[in-house]
Write a structure and sequence with these properties.
The protein is an alpha/beta fold. The chain is built from 5 helices and 9 strands, in the order αβββαβαβββαβαβ. The protein has helices at 2-10, 45-55, 70-81, 126-130, 152-165, and strands at residues 12-16, 20-26, 37-43, 59-67, 89-92, 99-103, 112-115, 139-143, 169-173.
């Protein structure tokens, strides 16, 4: 228990997982298929965790991959805007794409559509994980989607092992 408390008190968190673009139907209350405009911002559970930690005064660094295109760069720009360290965000090219989510704020028959084919965030590799000095952090957090497929799955287990060897707390959020 002391290690957990000490890790939290260090107030420096590495977070492994997805950053994506969220688009919200506008105006509020309209169904996506009837929206005349959409508003965009950063999304993805791991990116949202980093932003929340940053807003609370913590240091947070996101470990992920994003597509080397306008959507990926949008996500990195928004991470920086919110004060998240992006040194462990890797750009990937080819067929891989940053996730896109379409949301609406309807009370009835709410729709949430997520596009994740060839998801860029699943391209985090053991090499990406190995360049991180885990002892710089108080804790490593990961979201459950990192375990969905390779190479992200193996990279996540390596990150947990490296965290354990560095004696920092690690946790997965399902």
């Amino acid at each position: 228990m002391n290690a957990l408390i000490e890790g939290i008190q260090k107030n420096k968190f590495a977070v492994l997982g997805r950053a994506g673009m969220d688009m919200f139907a506008d105006p509020i209350g309209v169904k996506s298929e009837n929206a005349s405009t959409f508003k965009a911002d950063l999304g993805g559970s791991s990116a949202n965790i980093c932003v929340g930690l940053s807003k609370l005064g913590s240091y947070s660094a996101l470990i992920t991959s994003v597509s080397d295109d306008a959507v990926g760069r949008f996500c990195v720009n928004r991470l920086k805007y919110y004060g998240v360290d992006t040194q462990f965000v890797k750009y990937v090219s080819g067929e891989y794409r940053t996730s896109l989510a379409i949301y609406e704020s309807c009370m009835n028959n709410f729709q949430n559509v997520i596009y994740r084919n060839n998801a860029a965030d699943f391209q985090v590799t053991n090499e990406d994980i190995s360049r991180i000095n885990y002892s710089d952090f108080g804790a490593l957090l990961a979201t459950g989607t990192v375990l969905a497929c390779e190479p992200s799955r193996s990279a996540t287990f390596l990150a947990f092992e490296k965290s354990k060897r560095s004696r920092i707390t690690y946790n997965i959020r399902y």
